[in-house]
Amino acid sequence: MKKVIASALCLTMVGTAMFTGCASKQEEKVLNVWAFTNEVPDMIKRYKELHPEFDYEIKETIIATTEGAYQPALDSALAAGGADAPDIYCAEAAFVLKYTQGSAAQYAMPYADLGINVDSALKTAEIAQYTVDIGTRPSDGKLVALGYQATGGAFIYRRSVAQKAWGTDDPAVVADKIGSGSGNWTKFWQAAEDLKAVGCGIVSGDGDIWHAVENSSSTGWVVDGKLSISAEREDFLNISMKLMENGYHNDTQDWQDAWFADMKGEGPKDILGFFGPAWLINYTIGPNCGSKDEDGNLVGTFADGVGTWGDWAVCASPVGFFWGGTWVIANKDTKHKDAVKTIIEWITLDASENGLQYMWANGTLYGEGGTKDAVASGAVMKKSNGELDFLAGQNMFDAFVPAGEYATGKNLTEYDETINGYWRDQVRQYTSGAKSYEQAIEDFKAQVAENLDVTVE
Predict the structure, then answer these.
(1) Residue 187 phi/psi, 5° resolution?
(2) Domain ranges of the chain
(3) Do 30-150+324-385 and 154-319+391-415 come out as alike in CATH topology?
(4) Measuring CA to CA, which residue among 148, 105, 144 is closest to residue 125?
(5) Which of 1, 296, 363, 454 is geometrically suited to a Cys-Cys bond with 370, CB 3.0 to 4.6 A?
(6) C-alpha closest to that of 222 among 98, 71, 91, 92
(7) CATH code for 30-150+324-385?
(8) Rounded Cα–Cα distance for residues 366 and 349 (Å)
(9) 9, 380, 423: which is closest to 207 by C-alpha?
């Protein structure tokens, strides 16, 4: 009788101070997931659909990174702890080092402490080293974060423009023309001259080279607490000016209308291509390369004389780099280690055909016919079908598997998002003639000194 009364009271008085124990029992199978898009929360929901025995409620908190809103909110939630603290949280490339190696790294639980056999799993899945380096906490050498995408960069180019310049669109030939794998830009500039001779540009704007320069640099922006302008990043001033003075581009700014117009082939002159990872194909060039119907769907192809869909191919970059990515982290104070392990392992390390990455690579996570993407596991990409109509049937994994192996993750800092903005602005002012080379560098240093806790000499 006492048990019946207690149960009834629990149902009717849950939430009162006297019966908080009843509420905690109801809440004990709740996973708090923090992210800046719905991508990872939706993956976890999909896992639940595929594995009904995983009976955890997913409580998602999604805060966009626009206007810097995500990080302060996440930091507060991690510091506060308690029942509402994140069990799993995400960080993107622009600020991931803060959570894996910087000022908030202490909140992360090593994957090994979740019970994951890290060394074996990394080897089996053939995870690109740059993602491991970024996700490894230097204070103890432990892996605390991994991603699910491969964001190693390649050169994504238009076949018809290559045909105009060289009489072929063969990726092997174009790779040779731009100096793929050379580690320098020498052949790339000759290719730019070839394209200029037929009235075309090699890239849309200097931003299309910046990410390759930034993430192939020998050092990051901050070394031992001091601002460091590597030779490669300083040389971007010269690269940008060379593009401008020689008319090798359409002088666009990335993420603006003129940049998107070049993807569709509607700029002042046709351009050869863009440096970027597979996501640049799926989420940027693809959606912006043709006409759209009233529902926003692309209609027509390059073969139909509409836009540039199907007029693309991909080859290796002159330098190894990566651009973007999302890393998944476990809170050291989570009360649901087993559940968190299950989810993180499935998203980041499971190389089987039942893992997230295999379905993500083959476009089958939500059924057949979905978007194919490059994934963190080289082993998965090697056994997956990466053929895309967008690339006229080319298997994109032939380029993106080596791209991941070619990239380095040892030149990031937790200040990159801010410092990159300062640098790109000064470079634009230099190439427009508003500032001298020396003044641009001096003003850049002043911005860093005034706004960041970084020593500037």
Answers:
(1) -70, -30
(2) 30-150+324-385, 154-319+391-415
(3) yes
(4) 148
(5) 363
(6) 98
(7) 3.40.190.10
(8) 19
(9) 423
Distance from C-alpha of 380 to C-alpha of 385, rounded to nearest angstrom: 10
Task: List per-residue pLDDT tens for the chain, 457 residues long.
Answer: 333 333 333 433 333 333 344 444 445 899 999 999 999 999 999 999 999 999 999 999 999 998 889 999 999 999 999 999 999 999 999 899 999 999 999 999 999 999 999 999 999 999 999 999 999 999 999 999 999 999 999 999 999 999 999 999 999 999 999 999 999 999 999 999 999 999 999 999 999 999 999 988 989 999 999 999 999 999 999 999 999 999 999 999 999 999 999 999 999 999 999 999 999 999 999 999 998 777 888 888 898 888 999 999 999 999 999 999 999 999 999 999 999 999 999 999 999 999 999 999 999 999 998 999 999 999 999 999 999 999 999 999 999 999 988 888 888 888 888 999 999 999 999 999 999 999 999 999 999 999 999 999 9
The answer to whether the beta carbons of residues 279 and 324 sit under 8 Å apart is: yes
Burial class of residue 382 (count of CB atoms within 10 Å of its CB; 0-12, 13-18, 19+): middle
Q: Helix/strand/coil (H, E, C) string of the chain?
A: CHHHHHHHHHHHHCCCHHHHHHHHHHHCCEEEEEECCCHHHHHHHHHHHHCCCCCCEEEEEECCCHHHCHHHHHHHHHHHCCCCCCCEEEEECCCHHHHHCCCCHHHECCHHHHCCCHHHHHHHHCECHHHHHHCEECCCCEECEEECECCECEEEEEHHHHHHHHCCCCHHHHHHHHCCCCCCCHHHHHHHHHHHHCCCECCCCCHHHHHHHHCCCCCCCEECCEECCCHHHHCHHHHHHHHHHCCCCCCCCCCCHHHHHHHHCCCCCCECEEEECHHHHHHHHHHHCCEECCCCCEECCHHHCCCCCCCEEEECCCCCCECCCEEEEEECCCCCHHHHHHHHHHHHCCCCCCCHHHHHHHCCECECCCCCCCECEHHHHHCCCCECCCCCCCECHHHHHHHHHHCCCCCCCCCHHHHHHHHHHHHHHHHCCCCCHHHHHHHHHHHHHHHCCCECC
User: For residues 36 and 52, what is the distance between their CA atoms, to the nearest angstrom?
Assistant: 26
Give the CATH architecture of domain 154-319+391-415: 3-Layer(aba) Sandwich (3.40)
